[in-house]
Amino acid sequence: MISIWFFIGVSLLVNGLLILGAGLFEWRNPPAHPTVHLFHLHANVWWGALLTLIGAAYCYFFKPGQKKA
Fold first, then answer.
1. Which of 19, 24, 25, 59 could form a disulfide with 48 if both were Cys (CB 3.0 to 4.6 A apart)?
2. What's the predicted TM-score (pTM) here?
3. What is the CA angle 44-50-55, rounded to 5?
4. Domain boundaries, the chain
5. How far apart are CA 64 and CA 49, in angstroms?
């Protein structure tokens, strides 16, 4: 039986990678006139990295076939 937490980890990992990739692209190619007031903080890079780390941890700790203690 596969844990639901593994699928949540996969979802977080995929979404984190997509947000991180978009944030890095936007960091490399900034818009001429950003409409977001705190654009210089690059929140999408930080949130993408955080979601990626949490998703990778969930995938590691709840991977299928792992014996429970």
1. 19
2. 0.87
3. 120
4. 4-61
5. 24
